[in-house]
Amino acid sequence: MTTATAPLAPTPVPATPRLWSIYLRLTCVPVLWGGTFIAGRVISAHLPPATAGFVRFVFATLALLAALHFTEGLRAISRITRRQLLGTMALGATGIFAYNLLFFTALSVLPAGRTSLIIALNPVVTLLIAAALLGDRLSATRWLGVALALLGVWVVVTRGDLSQIAQSLGKGELSMFGAVCAWAVYTLLGRKLLQGLSPVLATLWAAIWGTLFLGLLALRDIPHVHAASFTPEVWAGLVFLGVLGTAVAFVWYYEGLRQLGAARTVVFNNLVPVFGVLLGWLILGEPLSASLLAGGGLAIFGVFLVNRVK
After folding, report:
1. For the range 221-225, what are the long-range contacts, defined as Cβ-Cβ under 8 Å and sequence gap of 24 or more?
2. Phi and psi of 49, rounded to 5°?
3. Are 59 and 211 in contact (CB under 8 A)?
4. End-to-end Cα, the chain, rounded Å
5. Which of 114-128, 206-220, 271-285 has the highest mean pLDDT?
6. Which of 63, 31, 27 has its CA nearest to residue 256?
7. What distance in Å separates the CA atoms of residue 2 and residue 72, rounded to the nearest whole number?
8. Is 37 within 8 Å of 284 (Cβ atoms)?
9. Whole-prediction pTM value?
């Protein structure tokens, strides 16, 4: 999943031989983010949500510290005002703590591919909240994108029977919608509260706060978590989520934002649910139903319109 915080000003596309490598990394980013649903599905079968999120973000925090060391130097961690520190606490509470609790709860009962299509609503919900609370204006084409994305997810959730929406909303679906809302709030808070902080530093502090909150809640899981729960597959999934799915994908994504600008970069987000569904089919053997493919196509096209048109 993307870890968007304060927006970055787009810069011109550089005419350098490295341009192809930036596009290659940006293509890898949705593969990694799509893979987080597969890893989350495996982990959630063995660990409670708070414990899974806590261990994930221990790895993520260490990886982000390494990223900070190589980009700005570790001394940069102290270059934060009191207001920014409180802002990162709010980010940690929403985008790390709440999101991961709901993410792992959803994946404990839903297939990975189905979950990845629900989370495709992230930019749509963010846009709607921004329009309702912050006065952002939406063009007619963006409203069309919102409608198509909502319809597509409706088809996915109801498995094609649109009249069964109430009966189709179970624990997993509601948890994933909650995760979408948590991420939307995280994104909008980052836009408002963290002016002046680099994306790496802002996300590192959010990860520190989120890890602390998740760790405190995970204390209640101690009697129920045993060493046998940490199978090789679970450890591999946690390392993947923390290092590749969070830190590496984040750095590559923001490198794209800086080098190519937002308009070219955000289009790659449309591939996340595609890879989530494909990887769920290839790795976990999840079925590809007609309603999943049709609803997913509608949702992805709607999100494309939301991201593409200003």
Report:
1. 221/47, 221/48, 221/50, 221/51, 224/48, 225/47, 225/48, 225/51
2. -55, -45
3. no
4. 23
5. 206-220
6. 27
7. 21
8. no
9. 0.84
Distance CA 134, CA 88 (A): 20
The angle subtended at Cα 249 by Cα 45 and Cα 260, nearest 5°, is: 150
Q: How far is CA 133 from CA 88, 120, 129, in A?
A: 21, 21, 6
Would you state the pLDDT for residue 261? 67
Backbone angles phi, psi at 14, to 5 degrees: -75, 135
In DSSP notation, 199-222 reads HHHHHHHHHHHHHHHHHHHHGGGG
Query: Both tokens of residue 83?
Result: 């207001």
Tokens of 10: 């787009």
Sign of CA dihedral 229, 233, 237, 240: positive
